Amino acid sequence: MADLQPDMPRTTEVGELDGLPDAPFPEQPGQPEPHTPAGVLLDQARALLAAHPVADGYSGLPWALRHLPRYDLELGEAAIDTDMPRMREGHVGALFWSLHPPEGPGGDRATVGTLEQLDHVRSVIESHPEGLRLVRTAGQVIDARNCGRISVVLGPAHATALDDSLGVLRILRALGLRVLTLTGTAWAGERGLTRFGEEVVREMNRLGVLADVSGAPAATAERVFTLSKTPVLCSRSAARALRPHPANLPDELLAALGAARGLCMVPLIAEQTGPTVQDVADHLDHVRDVAGPQSVGLSGTYDSGAVHPRDLADASRYPHLIAELLRRGWSEADLALLTWGNVQRVLRSADFAARAAQHRRDTSPTRITELDAL
């Protein structure tokens, strides 16, 4: 257990801190005037986040904690990027906890590995009942926030965890899984979805499991956009037009995602977005312009082993990003969608579609061997 230090050591980032000064708290966090001092913008950002906290689309915290002999998230841990003091300082209201093993989606133990991570996640949450709450629905996210708890949404997990079985998908959903990344399988590849892959997406819709197509081939992503009756996530994707990373989305896919009311969650990873907070803001501007303000979100990717841009080293630093967006003229309405509203919309939509589908569609008995590949 580590003591929380007054000046918490920061984990890996590019460059140095910005040293934005503190300033008197503004009466209203409205549109900034031209040349608004940096400290005033930062206070406006904090005020806005107090009303519209961050729903972080990807956290590697569960795996990071497995390598610590002891920890106390409530007290604070210098060895990680995400603990309760940092999340409170950064106004984080919800986290999607990744069940991805760091060595990648493959391997012979993908199902067992995912179940072990689910077991570990439950243990972490039970050890911090005053700070964390496991949630399964959009309504429970709101309840947790009203109780002063940070919501933990389970996922994304790799599709390899299904072991080509819809039964395993149903079990994982029963254990709380909400997001599945559709990569690394024979039924979701360069040629798109096979007939079994399409059946997986339909069953995900029936169960309320969101499809994540970050890193998926374009043909798979396009088919999922068309087939899914619920919004599709890109849990760790920025704009390829600004940075040619393979996980980033070209404009045609961003436009298609926006038309399907999906959500592109821009990662705070220097390799994908660039080394500064301004670079991240450029990607957010671009995604908003191409896909629309209803289709852009945030993905901290903290504790995932990634190098983060300058000024965004850990979960406490979200106000600095929001201050930069305020400087660029983002409205409070668009910022509220970015931080909180879009994730809530996607979860609510999936919950509603699942209830409707369960009245129309029985549990699918389909096996992969019963359907032909494309």
TrEMBL record:
Annotated Pfam families = Peptidase_M19
Gene3D superfamilies listed in its UniProt record: Metal-dependent hydrolases
An annotated Gene Ontology molecular function: metallodipeptidase activity
- Record-linked PROSITE patterns: RENAL_DIPEPTIDASE_2
Q: Provide the GO biological process annotations.
A: proteolysis
Q: Where is this region: Disordered?
A: 1-38
Compositional bias of kind Pro residues: 23-35
| PANTHER family in alphabetical order | DIPEPTIDASE, MICROSOMAL DIPEPTIDASE
What is the protein name given in its UniProt record?
Answer: Peptidase M19
Q: Please report the organism this UniProt entry assigns to the protein.
A: Streptomyces yokosukanensis
